[in-house]
Every structure is written in structure tokens, then in C-alpha cells.
Amino acid sequence: MPTYVTRRLIQSVPSVILVILLTFVIINLVPGDPSATLAGEFATPEYVAEIRKLYGFDRPVHERLLIYIGNMLTGNLGRSFFYKVPATQVVIERIPATILLVFPSIVLSMVVGLPLGIFAARKYPSRTTAAILFQAYVLFSIPIFVFGLLLMMVFAVYFRILPSSGMIGQFYATGLERAVDVLRHLVLPMLTLALISGVPPFVRLTYSAITEVSKEDFITTARAIGLDEDAVFRRHAFRNAMLPVVTIAGIWMSSAITGAVFTETVFSWPGIGSLLFDSILLRDYTVIMFIFVLTAISVIVVSLITDIIYERLDPRIRLR
Amino acid sequence: MDTFQPDGTIMKKRAVVLLLLLVPLILSCIPIPRVYGLERITCAKYGGTLVEAESLSIKSLNTVAIYDVTAANHMMNIYNNLVDLDRTFKPIPVLASSWDTSPDGLVYTFHLQHNVKWHDGEPFTAADVKYTFDAIMNRPSGYNKNLLLPFFDRAEVVDDYTVQLILKQANAGLLALLADPYSRSFVILPRHIYEGTDIETNPANEHPIGTGPFKFVEWVKGSYISMVANEEYFLGRPCADKYVVKQVTSASATVAALETGEVVYALHSWTPLSAQDVVNLSQDPRFTVDPITVSLFLFHLSFNMRIKPFNNLKVRQAIAHAIDSDKVAQMASSPLTKGNHHVYFTGHWATNPATLMPAYDPQKAEQLLDEAGYPRGADGIRFKTKINYDIKSAHTVQAAEVLKPMLKEVGIDLQLQPLEWAVYVSSIIEGVKKNPNAFELTLMGGAQGPDPSVWQVYLGTDGYRNIYGFSNSRVDELFTLGRSTPDIEQRKKYYYEIQELVLAELPRVNLYSGPDNGIASVDWKNFWFQIDNWPWQDHSRVYWVKGHAATEVATTQPVVAGISTETAIAAAVVAVIVLAGVGFYLSRRRKATIK
User: Fold this and answer.
1) Up-side HSE of residue B441: CA atoms within 13 Å toward CB?
2) Which residues of A touch B560 (CB under 8 A)?
3) Smaller CB count within 10 Å for chain A: N or C?
4) Which among B448, B467, B452, B462 has a CA at the least distance from the CA of B507?
5) Average pLDDT over chain A, rounded to an integer
């Protein structure tokens, strides 16, 4: 196992480099640079030019790319032009907020989605199944910010039982009080993210995976040898159906860092998604680059973990 | 009194009276530095937490080192300037209680307040002022340095409470520049914290120590900054106990936050609220909405005077008469906003009350256009033209859309061509210098204050933003004269004349200034835009009607640096999930199966 893991990690290095190359070039090809914004309202054209020279925006793309890679190899991922602190610091400070939002959402989606999908599969064919699948479609089609606003209006403005936006409302609380405050603020964005982006895929996927597996010969055999439905399901159908579900959960987790942009914007949740949005508008190149590098790395790590879990679940797979 | 006093006391009394009459005569001969009374803060009620909503994120808390207008919006509460501006943009004392200027206008001597303390208890002295200006000028590059470079020499300490700013070249706009309500890049920094360190990377940038009415408590990036009342503020304790600036990124969330009371105040232009949202809020009895009348930005329709038909004065005047600037302002910003009818900002000290933009008179417009030689064609159109403007600015887009029918009514077909700002700058602002046909009409704004000397960028012959092709040597002369003396009454004369000359040639039609509105809950009163003499966004005098009459010590636990609570919760949540997963997995394992 350790050799496999090491080998995979080494193999992933070219992918990361490729991501960096492509992202850098694309970002820098977009017209407009942050010089005018950085220079400010009363700036003279000379000052704007000075800024442009200071940060190297006047140099051609390939030259800047080489400088960037050179810096990266020495561990310097640049400073944010706007925050004036290292880009890594700006991004890492916001990671806990996104993790806090996305992980519970994934768990909630699975806790709600899997049983619903299983239930739909077990009850097939019936109106219950149709109803569940239809609901999943409906939820998935609703634009996430509309749903988020709906929850906000109902629970925050109308019923006043939950806060409307942000991560903190008790600004001067500490300790347990602060924790409870954050968790209260977490409810609506987490529900939004889970119900719209998480539950429907899990429901549909689990349903189709189990339905597919149920048609296999070994299921008929299991029934034939006298196992009751529950045992058939538990020992055979379920395990085999979990493989695609694990894949989806893995993909979702790896895109978690940037995947919650809409939810974070609607609820003013201070995570990576809203930081990315902000940075793109400002053309804060270093921060954008680092976010994409992080995403690339997390995709690689999560897919590695997914493969390891696969090996545990499926005895036909042996990782070499 | 003429009571008979045999010992000559009458003569003494008369002498005393005569002497008393002479005193004011004598005193008026001594040049007294101009002082506006700085009143101590008095509060009808104390208490409450003022929560303000803003949609852009704050990048830094040191606006001297790092240019950030979003942060600048709140800096007056943590830091102070030497001077600030009242609602007519005249300088008023803050850390400097008075100042005098040398006759040649090159040396400004500031007499500083005596009882000012930094938030950590250290006394504020002239050394802090000198340090701040030295730090600004010693940076390799900087927004504030760039503004001072053409005319500033150095700062000198005279004694603990007297500091001099010495210029290379007279610039009467210095005081307004130091106030800098837009980017607050001249607030005074504490020497004892910053000396010997790099002003850009000093950790105090994240935990600012200032002299202002509110002390910094906590900054959660992308979320909020919280402050608490400074009991030792030199003008007295502010009325509110606490002040928080909360980032709310969407318009609906801002409305929701106002409705639930999570937020009690917002400035329209710093939120994504639409004009309709502001109208709804103004009609809601729980909120007050006040248009903010004096501002830094003056939006106007610009003519390209180099090309037909706008090289004809009558055409320009006709278009001015065809525009109802009040209606444009209402549609662009909110029904409460009025048009700017003066040639410079309405309400500014330098604005000539006698020069007014041509009044709305479509018939006069038609008459002038006929006289100019542009009669209506068979289709009713006199001529076609196009207008460019910034596509991202919501109010500009709406203004353009309102102008179209207004001009159509007098027979001008207006085509709307919005541009991205970066393209606008390169193709029009810079482009028109090489290509006189770069545009026909534009909608433009930009900062033209707080000091009228900066207006030269728009109306001086070589002004960077002079896209109109306006050139008047007397105007250029007047701008130079206007900078040469700090005497406001004298400067007024020069700027009044500039406005007369600009009105005569009409290179542009003013529409509205700002635009901005202050939105507040009715439970909070006395905001800076509701009282006359107070600096932009200074919240020391705003009070909560549900507060209490006597002062109360604000209790706040200092926030302990270290792992933030959110990180701890996030870690705990992840740990729980992982443990649950492992537990689930282990419980599902069968006993050892035969391979």
C-alpha cells in the first residue's frame, strides 16, 4: 500500500504542473489587469504605469509564468496585490469556513439521499418511487440562490428563528456562545447546499445503482437459495451499489473548495468560494492561482482516497 | 453710568469702558488662526451596537500603507486625521485644534490637541504626525505619496504639540487632501507601534491602535470587523457602545438583514441594493432614507467639442435644456435624489450660487437646435449620435436609458453603447488624445473634490480627464491662482469665475452628484449625514433611542489570539465525521473471511 500511495502521488505531480500552467495562462490572457484598481481614484497615468511596472504586469505572459514557477519552487506563492499579505495566508484563513459548510452538507446529503434512494429502489415499481425521483428532479432544477433566498425569507425574515446571513451574529461572544452562534448561522446555507446540490444526485444514483444490481444473476441466486429480502439487500445489493456512490461523494468533496460559490455569496459565508469570486473581479492573480492549485491538489488526494476505499469495498480490485 | 462720584471714579469707569471697547479692535488686528468650534460629544442616550452592512470585503486596516476605499469607509472611527471636512467640504479641526499658514503658503503650522491618547494609553504627540508623513514619503511607491510628491517637502516637529508641514510649492488644497474622505490615506499612525518596522507588513495592520472614537476588537476576514467605544476619546465617549461592520454580499440578504434588525445602517452605494429596494425601504416606517447631498463624484454628460455637431455652442446648450436632471437623478439613484443644478457640487463652499445649469426647457432646446442649423428631418430626427458609459455602474446605465427618450423628444436619436471600464479608459480617456473621433457623448463621473483644485484634472487644458477638448487659458490661470492662497474667501473668487467661464462654454451637462443615500433604522438617530458639521462616516455621535441616559462601562472580553473558533468547530466536525465513518466501517466488518 505505501508504495502504491507514493507512486500515485509522484504520478500526480505532472497533473498539478499542467493545471498551474493552464490556469496561469488563461487568467493572464483575460484583458485588464489590477493596475488601475490598485492605483486608485486620483491616480495619474504615470502612477498607474509605475504600479504596472512594479508588479510586472507589463511583461509578457511567458516571462511572468517562468517567474511564477521559479518562485513556486522556492515555496513563494506570491503576495496578494490587494491584501498585501502572502496569498497562501489569505486563502488558508478562509478554508475552515468552507470546510465547515461543505463537509456537513455532504454528510447530510448522504444521510438523507442514500436511504431515500434505497427506499425508492426497494419500492420499485410504485408511485412512491416516482414521487421520490420526481422530487429529486425538482430540487435539482431549482437555482441554488433562489432556494437559498427562499429559506432565508421563510426562516429568517418571516419566522425569525434563524439568522439571515453571515457566519457570526453575536460579534462579541467567545467560546461556547460563539460556537453556538456559528452553528446557528450554518443551518440555512448547509440545508441549501445539501438539498439542491447533494441530495438529488445521491438519491438518483443510489436508486439506479441498486436497480441495476438487482437485475444481476447473483441476486436471483441469493433469493433462490432462500435468503429473505432484507438479507439479499444487505449482503449483496447494497454493497455493490455503493461503488458509484463513493465515486460521486469523492468528486463532490474534491470540488468542495470552490463548489459552494453561489451559496457562499447568497449567505455571505466567508469561505473560499466567495474569496474566489472577489479575487476574479479584482484580478488578484496570486490568490486565484493558489485557490486553483489547492483545488487541483485536493482532487488528487481525494481521488487517491476514493481508490483506496474502492479496494476495501470491492475484492476484485487490488491496488498495485 | 453718570452717577456723581466726587473722587473721579466716573473718569475711571469711562476709561474702563473705552478700553473694553478697544479690545476687540486690537484683537482683530492680530492674525488669529481660523478655528471652528470642536464640540464635545453629548448624547441623548448611550448604548447599543451599531451594525453596518457593506458588500465589499475589507482588505486591510491600515489605509496609510494599503489603498483600500472599502476599509477607508470606517477608518474615521478607529483613527483620526489632522483635519476633516464639514458638509460643505470646508476643513474642520480634529487632531489639529487650529492651524496657521505662512504668507507664502509654504509652511503650515498645526497646533495639536493636548489630551489625546492612543488606544493603548500612550499619549499622542507631534512625533506621531512626523512619523506618519516620513513613512508615507519614504515608501518606494504609494497612493498617498503620489498625491504629495508634486508639492510636499517634509514634516517638522516644533514641540510636543506643534508640528509643521513644509511644502515645495503652495497648494491650498492641502487641508482637503489631508482629510481625504475617499481613501483615508493620511490618518495619523502611532509612532511607538510602527517606527522601525515595514509599514505594509507590521502585524498592527491587523490589530490597529488609533486615537479614534472606537477601539478595534476583532476582524474576521470576509465577515466583519467589530469595535467598541473608546471611553478616553478626546471629545468624550461616543454614544454607541459598539460598532460592527458586517459584510453582506447580496441585495436580498441586505434587505433581509435590515428587516430582521441584524443590521441597522447601510450606505446605498456600498451595498448591492437596487433603486427599487431603496424606494421600498424609504416607504417602510421602520427605516429612514436620507439622500447624501455633498459628495466627491459629479456625474455629467460630456460633449466632444472637437467634432460636429457638438462643436456648436447652441447644440450643447440645447441638449442641456432638453435634460431634466432631477428626473435623471431620480431614475438613476432613488426618488429622493435631486439633480445637481450648479456648475460645481451643490452645497460645496466653492460653488457659485449664481451659475446654474440651463433649466429644463424642451421648447428652448428645439428653438436652439433650429437656430444651430439642425432642423427636424422628414422622420422627425435632427441628427443621430451615440453615448458611451461604464456598463458595470448601475446608476449610469439607468441614467443613459432615461436620457434616450429625453433627447428623442427634441429630435435627437441617441444610441446607447456601454463599455467595460478598462476599455472606456483606454479607448476614450486615453484614446481621445490620439483620435479626436474617439467618442461623441459620454456619461462620466469621477472624483472632482473634496478640494476644487482637483477639478483641474477635468477642466484644465492638459487635464488627464479633460476629454471634452475644453481649453480656456483664463481657466488654467484661475486654477493656478486658486491653489496659491489658503484664504477661502479669496479662493472662492477664483473658483466662482471658473464656473462662470465653464457655464459660458458648456463642455458638459451636470446630472447628479454621488449618488448615495443613507439607510438607517428609525431606532438610530444623529447620523453624520443628518447633522451639519461632522466628518464623513464618523459614528461618534449617533445614538440608539432605546439606550439609557447615563454612561455605562462597555464590557468586552479581549479576543484571544490563536486558533479561531471557526477552525476549532470545523476541525471538530471533520473529526466527528471521520470517527463515525471509521466506526461504521469497523462495525460492518465481518469476521475474518477465508481468502
Assistant:
1) 25
2) 174
3) C
4) B467
5) 85
| Residue A270 at interface with chain B, using a CB cutoff of 8 Å | yes
Query: What is the pLDDT averaged over residues B52-64?
Result: 90
Query: Are A202 and A245 a contacting pair, CB within 8 Å?
Result: yes
Q: What angle do CA A125, A126, A131 make, to 5 degrees?
A: 120
Instruction: Report the C-alpha gap between A238 and A122 in whole angstroms.
Output: 11
Among B164, B195, B20, B194, smallest CA distance to B99 is for B164
Contact, B64 vs B199, CB < 8 A? yes
Interchain pair B221, A90: CB under 8 A: yes
Cell of B446: 469621477
Q: Residue B508 forms beta bridges with which residues?
A: B302
Mean pLDDT rounded to a whole number for chain B: 87
Q: Residue window 122-151, chain B: list those with CB within 8 Å of chain A.
A: 140-141, 143, 146-147
Sheet holding B96-101, edge to edge: B96-101, B107-112, B162-167, B152-159
CB B325 within 8 A of CB B341: yes
Give the tens place of pLDDT for each residue, B522-552: 999 999 888 876 788 999 999 999 998 875 5
- pLDDT confidence of residue B39: 81
CB pair distance less than 8 Å for B565 and A174 = yes
Report chain B residues whose CB lies below 8 A from the CB of A153: 252, 256
Look up the pTM and report it.
0.83
Question: In what helix (H) or strand (E) does residue B154 lie, and over which residues does it extend?
Answer: strand B152-159
pLDDT at B5 over 70: no
- Neighbour-count burial of B430, counting CB atoms closer than 10 A to its CB (0-12 exposed, 13-18 middle, 19+ buried): middle
ipTM score of the complex?
A: 0.84
Q: In A, which residues are within 8 Å of B447 by CB distance?
A: 41-42
In angstroms, the CA B169 to CA B465 distance is: 23
Q: What pLDDT was estimated at residue A39?
A: 78
The 10s digit of each residue's pLDDT in B323-378 is 999 999 988 888 888 899 999 999 899 999 999 999 999 999 999 999 999 999 99
Asked if B65 and B52 touch (Cβ cutoff 8 Å), the reply is: no
Q: Please compute the mean of the pLDDT values over residues A238-243 and round it to a whole number.
A: 78
* Across B140-165, average pLDDT: 92
Interface of B with A in 544-573 (CB under 8 A): 556-557, 559-560, 564-571, 573
